[in-house]
């Protein structure tokens, strides 16, 4: 196996340092209030070095969003597999998935809010979102049509898969609208209970 060259290793490390720094700033100051000089300083690289790895801060933002989407997609596909293989643990699996999803949404709330306006200004940002969403919807559609454990709430499996997606995947949509005094754990459990009933309940 060919050894990784020092320059390649340094590139990987510096890119990750820039991404980590940008994510922190995007979630504290917001995308619009953050500049490349601040990102470079927090990452411990020069501003000139920043441009060796990324053409602008939008490209860093795009990579952060893409990484998040891929991780989230993998988590949801794991959930679907768990529901198929261990239906008796469906409640626990859903609560765990929703808890992790809400935790991520809370930690990245400012960045996700900026994404909503950025995708209008830069529609190409939505390309990966659409691709990942289509993959997830296809997996949910197969689950709703093929799993022997799922209750048929409607004759149209597309409706079921869309409703399931909305309940277990669309949780970040509600985060910014939740009252400050809400019991987060109770909210997660109730959301999971609704999703569980919709898929498996009598």
Condensed summary:
By secondary structure, the chain is mostly helical. The protein has two domains: 1-55, Homeodomain-like (Arc Repressor Mutant, subunit A); 57-200, Tetracycline Repressor, domain 2 (Orthogonal Bundle), CATH 1.10.357. The protein has ten helices and no strands.
- Count helical runs: 10
Unreliable parts: none
Q: Any idea what the CATH architecture of the largest domain is?
A: Orthogonal Bundle
Order of helices and strands: HHHHHHHHHH
By secondary-structure content and strand pairing, the structural class works out as: mainly alpha
CATH class of the largest domain: Mainly Alpha
Characteristics of this structure?
202 residues, mainly alpha, 2 domains, Transcriptional regulator TetR family, HTH-type_Tx_Regulator, single chain, 74% helix, Homeodomain-like_sf, Tetracycline Repressor, domain 2, Arc Repressor Mutant, subunit A, elongated
Chart the SSEs and their pairings:
Blueprint: H1 6-26, H2 36-43, H3 47-53, H4 57-85, H5 90-107, H6 109-121, H7 126-146, H8 157-168, H9 172-175, H10 184-200
Helix pairs in contact: 1-2, 1-4, 4-5, 4-7, 5-10, 7-8, 8-10
InterPro entries: Homeodomain-like_sf (IPR009057), HTH-type_Tx_Regulator (IPR050624), HTH_TetR (IPR001647)
Protein name: Transcriptional regulator TetR family
Keywords: DNA-binding
